[in-house]
Design a protein that fits this description.
Length: 333
């Protein structure tokens, strides 16, 4: 069941005795646990009827005792086991979840990995409650996810700003939401978030960042590329060599796939390569600048400079010098 549907049930005061929230993406696990906590009990009921335990420190017998206790001056009790991946005796909860206390809402938050679906423990959770697996969002889904979240806040975000955020913030949804929430407060309701807003409030330069360097290289804008490289030389944290190499490898790997995809429409490329349509359009333009033979040579070059960045075959050049030489070789050889 989707998180929005579970939250709708909670808002309607429809509670299950069991919730098992697990997976690599902690954002939805935290969001659902917080929603259950918010709706299960009123503020004045929590002192006597809410228990939060952590897997590393939890004692099995104490946990079972909490689960079997009855509510005091309230309709239900709430017991949340956080960081359940660290609870060594989690399989021993099977006896309880087979026959849970009907007045207790038991929430298991199992983070950073998926729980083994073959184990018997999950079956009662699925039968009597909800099991939600929170998967890591895929890279190509990030721009759409960011746009959707921004719209939910009553704001807009242009395509370039969306890609800039996705490239800089990565796939940590908690971090993305935190930054977008700050931006929504700053820009105010019914506004469009621009690259200027991002630069001013998040600290990502709208002109001098890895995203813009990759774009400059893909479109063979040498002057722009070397201005960004020079900026990185004086501001190393803005464009670490290893991050640049990873981003360039992704670009040229995608370009190679574009070359060998029969249907060259933007929609077909987006589907075949697994990117946002905006990115697919950029790749279609960039393929004119790099044929497959050149791309193969560049990928070999990226591997070479990855080793040099780690000290293999390089005893004197710093990260800035390596980046400058790498960009020169990509653009001019």
């Amino acid at each position: 069941m989707e998180p929005s549907l579970i939250i709708k049930e909670l808002q309607q005061q429809q509670f299950k005795p069991l919730y098992f929230l697990h997976g690599e993406e902690s954002y939805y696990i935290d969001m659902l646990a917080e929603a259950i906590q918010q709706h299960a009990l009123q503020e004045h009921e929590r002192d006597f009827n809410q228990t939060i335990l952590y897997g590393k420190d939890a004692d099995l017998l104490a946990l079972i005792s909490e689960l079997k206790s009855y509510p005091m001056m309230a309709e239900r009790r709430l017991v949340i086991l956080k960081e359940a991946q660290d609870f060594k005796k989690i399989d021993e909860l099977e006896a309880y979840v087979d026959n849970p206390t009907p007045t207790t809402v038991f929430v298991v938050c199992y983070k950073n990995k998926a729980f083994d679906a073959r184990k018997k423990l999950l079956k009662p959770f699925a039968k009597l409650g909800h099991v939600y697996k929170s998967d890591k969002i895929r890279e190509y889904q990030l721009p759409d996810w960011i746009s959707k979240y921004v719209r939910s806040k009553g704001l807009q975000l242009n395509a370039k700003a969306t890609m800039l955020l996705a490239e800089y913030l990565g796939s940590d949804l908690g971090r993305i939401v935190n930054e977008l929430d700050k931006l929504s407060i700053v820009v105010g309701p019914n506004q469009t978030i621009t690259e200027q807003d991002i630069e001013k409030n998040i600290g990502i330069s709208k002109d001098y960042n890895v995203f813009e360097l990759v774009n400059a290289i893909s479109s063979k804008q040498a002057d722009k590329a070397f201005k960004i490289v020079q900026y990185f030389e004086y501001n190393p944290k803005a464009g670490e060599l290893i991050v640049v190499i990873q981003s360039l490898f992704k670009l040229f790997s995608q370009l190679m796939r574009v070359h060998f995809t029969p249907n060259k429409s933007r929609e077909a490329i987006a589907s075949a390569v697994g990117v946002h349509p905006f990115v697919a359009g950029e790749l279609l333009n960039a393929r004119q600048n790099y044929d497959p033979k050149k791309i193969a040579a560049i990928i070999a070059l990226l591997h070479e400079y990855d080793l040099k960045s780690k000290g293999v075959g390089n005893s004197s050049m710093d990260q800035g010098e390596l980046l400058k030489e790498l960009v020169f070789q990509i653009l001019y050889t």
